[in-house]
Amino acid sequence: MTLAIAACLAFAMPAVTFAQSADDDLVSSMTSSAPSMKAVSQGIELTVTDGDTHHFYIYSITGQMVKSIDVAESVIVDLPQGYYIVKCKDWSKKIVVR
Fold first, then answer.
1. Which among 49, 39, 22 has a CA at the least distance from the CA of 82?
2. 91, 28 in Cβ contact below 8 A?
3. Which of 12, 40, 56, 83 is the most buried if burial means most Cβ atoms within 10 Å?
4. What is the DSSP letter of 21?
5. Which secondary-structure segment (H or E) carries 2?
6. Best CA proximity match to 80, nearest among 92, 67, 89, 69
7. Are 57 and 87 contacting, i.e. CB atoms less than 8 angstroms apart?
8. SS3 at position 6
9. How far apart are CA 98 and CA 95, in angstroms?
């Protein structure tokens, strides 16, 4: 039974790669063309590499929308220290701004 559950989970999980950045932030990406984000001093850097404009929603950890922004290339969003949830059409991720 346990083996069957483990096998189902192995096939149901999407392939996600993780890498440790220089600022000790965990960065993940589903595909190379998906929008990405990383924590920088005093905010979050949002990057789009596929040439399209993507809309991002940034929420506080309590669920209140903090910012809504369209990004075509790369932008740094100034935010105070805290925990945030960033959503776009391709993913939703948690991030810490220190």
1. 39
2. no
3. 56
4. -
5. helix 2-12
6. 67
7. yes
8. helix
9. 10
Please report, in tens digits, the pLDDT of each residue of the chain (98 residues total): 554 554 444 444 343 333 334 444 455 444 458 899 999 988 999 999 999 999 999 999 999 999 999 999 999 999 999 999 999 999 999 999 99
The pTM for the full model equals 0.66
Q: What are the helix and strand counts (H, E) for the chain?
A: 1, 9
- Per the CB < 8 A criterion, the answer to whether 84 and 42 are in contact is no
Residue 52 DSSP SS3: coil
CA 46 to chain centre: 9
- Write phi, then psi, for 89 (nearest 5 degrees): -70, -20
Q: Pairing mode, if any, of strands 65-71 and 54-60?
A: antiparallel
